[in-house]
UniProtKB/TrEMBL annotation:
One of its GO terms (cellular component) is plasma membrane. This is RDD family protein. It is found in: Cell membrane. It holds the Pfam family RDD. The chain crosses the membrane at residues 47-68, 88-110, 144-161, 167-185.
Length: 220
C-alpha cells in the first residue's frame, strides 16, 4: 500500500466533502458548526441503541427459521421430542448465514440510504467514505468485516487459553470495545474498522428550527 493511500485512510473527509454534508437552503432552518469526527463514547452509545433493534430482529428471524426447521425435521419421521433440537447442519447452513445476512442487511440498507441507522440518527452520527459520500454495498460489507477482525482474533485467543464459550465471548467483546478505544490513541480519531475500510463516522451539526410564530411573522 502506497504512502498516499495510507494517508487517505487515516484522514477524515476533506473540508469540501464535509461542507456538502451540511443541510442548506431550507427556509426557517439554521445549522451550527461543521461535521466532525464522532467521539468513541457517542459511537458506543449508538451501538447499544442499534444492538437492541438488531437483537429483536435476529430473534424474529431465528424464531421463523426455527419453526420452519422443526417442521422440516418432523416431516422426515423424527418425533416431536427429537425435533426440539435442530440438527447441526441446519444451524450451520441456515441459521448462521441468515443471521449474518440480517446483520449486513440492517446496516447496509441504512448506510446506503442515509448513512445512519436509527441509533446513529438519535446522536446525529453519519457514516460516509473518505470522500464524504454514502457507502456502497461493497464498502458496507468491507466495513462490517473490518469491524469483526479484532473481535474474532480476541475471541480465538480467549478460547485457546480457557477453552470455554464464555471466555471467547468476553474476549470478543473486549476486541469490539478496542475498535473504539483505538479512537483515543489515533491522531485522526478513527476507529480500527474506519482505517481498514476507508470510512469514517461523523458527528453532524445541530439543526435549529425556528418557532412557528417566528416563521409566520417572517412570511408576513
Amino acid at each position: 500500500m502506497s504512502k498516499q493511500r495510507r494517508s487517505n485512510l487515516s484522514k477524515p473527509p476533506t473540508a469540501s466533502s464535509e461542507k456538502g454534508l451540511r443541510p442548506t437552503g431550507i427556509e426557517g432552518v439554521s445549522v451550527s458548526g461543521e461535521p466532525e469526527i464522532a467521539k468513541a463514547a457517542i459511537r458506543v452509545i449508538a451501538i447499544v441503541y442499534d444492538g437492541m433493534l438488531i437483537l429483536a430482529l435476529l430473534f424474529l428471524v431465528g424464531t421463523v427459521l426455527t419453526v420452519l426447521g422443526t417442521m422440516m425435521t418432523m416431516e422426515t419421521g423424527v418425533t416431536s421430542d427429537q425435533a426440539q433440537t435442530l440438527p447441526a447442519w441446519y444451524r450451520n447452513l441456515v441459521l448462521t448465514p441468515a443471521f449474518i445476512v440480517t446483520l449486513i442487511g440492517f446496516y447496509g440498507l441504512f448506510w446506503r440510504r442515509a448513512g445512519q441507522t436509527l441509533g446513529m440518527q438519535t446522536w446525529r452520527l453519519k457514516t460516509v467514505d473518505s470522500q464524504g459520500q454514502l457507502l456502497t454495498w461493497s464498502k458496507t460489507v468491507k466495513r462490517i468485516l473490518a469491524a469483526c477482525v479484532v473481535p474474532v482474533i480476541c475471541g480465538m485467543i480467549g478460547y485457546a487459553f480457557h477453552n470455554s464459550r464464555s471466555a471467547m465471548l468476553f474476549s470478543a467483546f473486549f476486541g469490539l470495545m478496542f475498535n473504539y478505544l483505538f479512537c483515543l490513541f489515533n491522531r485522526g480519531g478513527l476507529a480500527v474498522h474506519d482505517m481498514l475500510s476507508g470510512t469514517v463516522t461523523l458527528k453532524m451539526p445541530k439543526i435549529h428550527h425556528e418557532g412557528l410564530f417566528k416563521s409566520l411573522r417572517k412570511k408576513k
